[in-house]
Amino acid sequence: MPFISYDPTAMETKSERNASTATVRSRPAFAVEPGPGQESVWDYPRPPAIRRDGRLVEVRDGNAVVATSKGAYKVMETASPPTFYIPAADIDFDLLVSVSDTTYCEWKGTATYWALARDPAQPVGWCYERPRPRFDIIKGYFAFYPGRVDCCLGGEPVTTQAGRFYGGWITSEVVGPFKGEPGTGHW
Length: 187
Description:
Blueprint: H1 14-19, E1 39-40, E2 49-53, E3 57-61, E4 64-69, E5 72-76, E6 83-87, E7 96-105, E8 109-116, E9 119-127, E10 141-144, E11 150-153, E12 156-157, E13 159-160, E14 169-170, E15 174-175
């Protein structure tokens, strides 16, 4: 089965279409077979694909609403649960502070990090303020770590991806195994 489980013709802009070019490979034998309505992260491409996702995306810190959006982008990359990028206009920045941490992604570029204002030592999300051209569509959008904040997708609580570094959103619609789990360090 090929890795492409999305329709690149459904993309809305040239930036989205450019981000959908991917390597097609077969799903490995150890991958969980998806059931009806599910996606295998092993069908996601590398480099990552992006598509608009109109479901309600919610991020909370206890009762405080950090973000709520129906305008998120879903980023899908081989072996990882999808990550959801939320427009800045849908985020309550009174609850967040920028921190000095940065990391570099070979596909998306340099990420900057954000923490809850009440706990600035622990980043809860990140943003690509100047992504590489192929991922310009998520410029200024923010992704959050489930587990560091409470995240829901379409009303379903999101489970945390294993590993300190990863921020994928595990829901009932995705199957793995997922990067970050024990024994996946070589992926």
